[in-house]
Design brief:
This protein is mainly beta. It contains 2 helices and 12 strands. The strands form 2 sheets. It has a 7-stranded antiparallel sheet. A 5-stranded antiparallel sheet has the order 3-4-7-11-10. A hairpin with a 5-residue loop joins β3 and β4. It is globular. It starts with a helix and ends with a strand.
């Protein structure tokens, strides 16, 4: 993500009430960024009916094909009324040897990890953008 976009996102996070325990987002929407700055969740206006404290934690990754850490976005299982956008920045070295079609985003369901169907891989900016309809754990993986 470019420098200007990070500044805008940081400002949006501050506006929504960022704290060490999470970021409070309400019906007006907001942006929540992981502490390492590599995972962002953009929640659109109207996706939440009331204020919710959103957390993003780096967690142990169960995916051996993962390109970087896995993130758990909580409260896990909470649906969004309108899809949110996740932006996952990946170290460029992790992408070496792969094409955009090799990379996908997985989300953890009740019993298994499933790919998110609408995702876009930007190899130039080393990021993956996808839509999420509920809060969960996410991983970016390379499929052979």
């Amino acid at each position: 993500m470019n420098h200007i976009a990070k500044i805008v996102l940081a400002g949006a996070v501050l506006v929504t009430g960022c704290s060490e325990e999470g970021t409070t987002v309400g019906s007006r929407g907001g942006v929540v960024v992981s502490s390492d700055g590599h995972f962002t969740l953009e929640i659109p206006e109207g996706a939440l009916e009331s204020d919710v404290t959103i957390t993003i934690d780096e967690v142990a990754c169960e995916q051996p094909e993962a390109l970087g850490p896995c993130y758990e976005v909580g409260p896990v299982g909470m649906p969004l009324l309108f899809p949110g956008t996740i932006i996952y920045e990946i170290d460029r070295e992790e992408l070496e040897g792969f094409e955009a079609d090799d990379v996908t985003v997985l989300t953890q369901g009740e019993s298994e990890w499933r790919p998110l169907s609408d995702h876009h891989v930007d190899m130039g900016h080393a990021e993956v953008v996808a839509s999420a309809v509920y809060l969960s754990s996410f991983a970016v993986v390379a499929l052979d």
